[in-house]
Amino acid sequence: MQTGERTREHSMTRRELLVLGMGAFAVATLPGAVRRGSHLIRRQAPVMGTIAELAVVHADPLRAHAGIDAALATLGRVERLMTRFEPTSDVGRANRAAAREPVSVSPATAAVLAEALAWAEASGGAFDPTLGRAIRLWDVGHRRTPPPEEAVRRLAGRRLYRSLELDRWRGAPVVRFTEPDAEIDLGGIAKGYGVDLAAEALRAHGIARAIVNVGGDLYAIGEAERGGPWRIGIRSPRDPAWLAGMLEISDGAVATSGDYLQYFQHGGRRYHHLLDPRTGAPRLSAVRSVTVTAQTCLAADAAATAVFGMELDAAEQLLKSRAPRARIASRIADGASTGRG
To answer: With bands split at pLDDT 50, 70 and 90, how would you rate the model's confidence at 36?
Structure first.
């Protein structure tokens, strides 16, 4: 994976780049820069509670569209398995019944849960895939005031991920909870997994140059439309019309976690969707967003979620233990952007 960074903040103009990217990223796609004989095919579609955005560079538009169809179908399958919002998904069925009896899940869901539990253990619970009940309690997309303190305290510091048991029954994976308050939410890892599979689907259709971006989880395949690595702009949490930094990526992933897309304001404080399992409440952090690059989008997604609010040394130690080739590309605070190259 090739990466580079420019952290000087600057505005995005259509003369500089055509913007592909709602949420955390913008992707430079310069007009007229596609190599002779190739086409830049772009498409957006709603999936996984956000917008999937794909850009493919290929000589054959029909093949490009077929690859995009396959990638979007893959993302849809991951969503149907792992969303907590559907009672018939693997996660929905587990959340309904796994505190009473083992619940069968697909091998894909079991694999993502196993990865999530590994990140939970390595991070000392900073990443916790069983915070679904606390996430529902805060419901930052609809609330305008914090929930009752006693309800928050009841879910704080429980390390509920240790109550999630993965096993097999008659050759198939099953899930069981030993604590009734455990509730799976794979929002910090399933999108990254889906992006990785979508990139595989594109490659299987002969696509060697493409971008898959799903709500701030991005994988770059091969070279950009003008040659060389893809240029990925990190949006400023202070103003999404500005870039806080630029990365160059080829055959690698990047993910951002931040407090500026899902939140409400109350009493002079920003209550965002990134919860601290120790307190059961939104994490307190001077850093507004963290961007992580990695070999896979699953690792980048989980890492960006886990390290938000961590001190830099602790965050780097976590990456060293779980994803040695990952790195923190930027940490953007209210006053400045920081990072280690």
So the answer is: low
